[in-house]
Amino acid sequence: MMNFNYYTPTRVVFGRGTLDQTGELVKAQGAKKVLIHYGGGSAKRSGVLDRVKESLAAAGVGYAELGGVVPNPRLSLVREGVELCRREGVDFLLPVGGGSVIDSAKAIGYGVANGGDVWDFYDFKRTPAACLPVGAVLTIAAAGSEMSDSSVITNEDGWVKRGISSDLCRPRFAVMDPELTMTLPPYQTASGCVDILMHTMERYFNGQAEPMVLTDALAEGLMRTVIDASHVLVREPDNYAARAEVMWAGSLSHNGLTGCGTGGGDWSCHKLEHELGGLFDVAHGAGLAAVWGSWARYVLDADPARFARFAEKVLGVEPGADDTETALRGVAAMEGYYRSIGMPTSLRELGVEPTEAQIEELAEKCAVTVHGRMGAVKTLRKGDMAAIYRAAR
Amino acid sequence: MMNFNYYTPTRVVFGRGTLDQTGELVKAQGAKKVLIHYGGGSAKRSGVLDRVKESLAAAGVGYAELGGVVPNPRLSLVREGVELCRREGVDFLLPVGGGSVIDSAKAIGYGVANGGDVWDFYDFKRTPAACLPVGAVLTIAAAGSEMSDSSVITNEDGWVKRGISSDLCRPRFAVMDPELTMTLPPYQTASGCVDILMHTMERYFNGQAEPMVLTDALAEGLMRTVIDASHVLVREPDNYAARAEVMWAGSLSHNGLTGCGTGGGDWSCHKLEHELGGLFDVAHGAGLAAVWGSWARYVLDADPARFARFAEKVLGVEPGADDTETALRGVAAMEGYYRSIGMPTSLRELGVEPTEAQIEELAEKCAVTVHGRMGAVKTLRKGDMAAIYRAAR
Lengths: 393, 393
Known about the structure:
Strand content of chain A: 5-15%
Oligomer: homodimer
Radius of gyration of chain A: 20 Å
CATH class of the largest domain in chain A: Mainly Alpha
Number of strands of chain A: 8
Structural class of chain A: alpha/beta
CATH superfamily of the largest domain in chain A: Dehydroquinate synthase-like - alpha domain
Order of helices and strands of chain A: EHEHHEHEHHEEEEHHHHHHHHHH
Strand order of the largest sheet of chain A: 1-8-5-4-2-3
Helix content of chain A: 40-55%
Number of helices of chain A: 16
CATH architecture of the largest domain in chain A: Up-down Bundle
Number of domains of chain A: 2
């Protein structure tokens, strides 16, 4: 097993009614004026924004606000946020939403706390030295950004989607009320569950000869829990317990816990999806589901025992004659699971039909961001990436 | 499921060779002069203390030192540490050891950062408002104090053992090198494994009608991992992987993770053991093993389904005719496990034979600290506590 660092300083306040603690949590951080950052109209319509404002007012904390964050959040709005924060003297960022909103707030935090153009950090030209503090009010269980060190932003100039990681941006607190996620449409709920599963799967398929037994046990328990809860949510979108399981799993799946001792994990599917999401603006989790099976079949021969273990421990697949057979059954079972919750297992089902030229463009963009190679299970180069995109069509 | 807070700000640096990062970690906290706090001669003999001092010197951090911490750490040494820190201008506490040493450091931290007598906090007369920052170098996997909010101290005046909990004392960092635990004697290793298991078992037996599925899955995976690894360590005390599994499980078992959504847990066995440890100075984990079976049989009828689930999921017990039969088989299997790693399942095996008067004294001390009643599975009063002590003889 590999050495590891684990750092999850976020104060989690979880459960019914916790939204109303937001103001006190912000005040405890010493903030004077926050930026309430959010997406479309749902936060307004649901009354969540009003409750946040009331809670801030009760705690005597001022605010500015900036809505309009979209899935695959845009650099232009980040830049607008940076200017707004400087103009208004904002000293704390309060995203109210899901991963896109939180990631956008983190990017604003980098922009405000460092000079120069914020895209430099996402273009790997500079490393951020600081970040304005962030506290999250979570309304979508998916990205895990409420506890994670990562932020993913899309630059409209070239539609490039890039993510960076730094402990500087880990939220100071996260308010997680599962009731706030009950009105999410089924597609978004399912897409979130895939994203949560993939954050652990990327770490679970890690190419290590001897992964940590405890980490595997936690990862497998988490994945089984999400799969079971996602099935419940197909039938009962307002099942509080299932919403809570998924929400907490979303945080634990991307705060580092399920990667301890694994050496970091694979992350190829995330890279493949990031470029897809940049070019076609698809839902992140759905994009991951669409490419995962093709990735798995492409790399499976490099570690059939691991895929066989996944098949048995997570999906309850009956073992076949050998690891490869069990592994292939597991990939098919996982695709069956994706379909059962309404998720795609191909680009076509995702609603995307890239041309050959676009596949080359996707693979090229992918390769550039990873210095030509990626993957822990099997090293993938540009040609491999294009082959996986093609197989996923 | 219950609402919960989760806060684990400790920066974990885990693996081979991490000890030499201690100086840089202290420096990053802005410390100018630390108190190196430790136990007996083993930290000196093993060379760990010298490596810590070299690491501090390389980082340009000064130090004072105070050894002599014993299991069930004493109030008198805590008071000595408080005076020493004030005299020497210490601004950071660096315990090098296991839970006793870290708990003692936390108590010193409370003493330095607040006025008055430090025992007031443990006697529930005052609540600490601050704590000098602590960073831990862990050499014994057991108590989980390296990430926990708790500190347990024994007052020699009356031999009263008391614990308090506050986020203020959670260590800023924890250096965890499993190699440092390889020279622990078998009894101490096994006792540590029991303590780790019990930190999750106390949370797992929680009296909730609908505990969190994810928390149960994580808890069960953790307990299975510790049981398997402890068996390996009986045969191979220097098995790095097993030492690492146990060490990381020790932190996760008491940082709050395995209690999320459970409402807090039971903690009766810990209370029963605390008074035993205060009066007879036994190893904490061994004391827990000695009382657990008697506690379990005493309360089992209040929640047979939960004990049956534990039997099947954690111990792999074949189910009996009903939950009670499965549950009883599970208790027997757990006692068999304790014996298999050299742990006692009764007070006599623990080496303690309390008189009737001493049992009344233990129950009385226990009852006083919990305002007359304790337990989430079943409410226990003084008479129940005495009955469990008696059954454990």
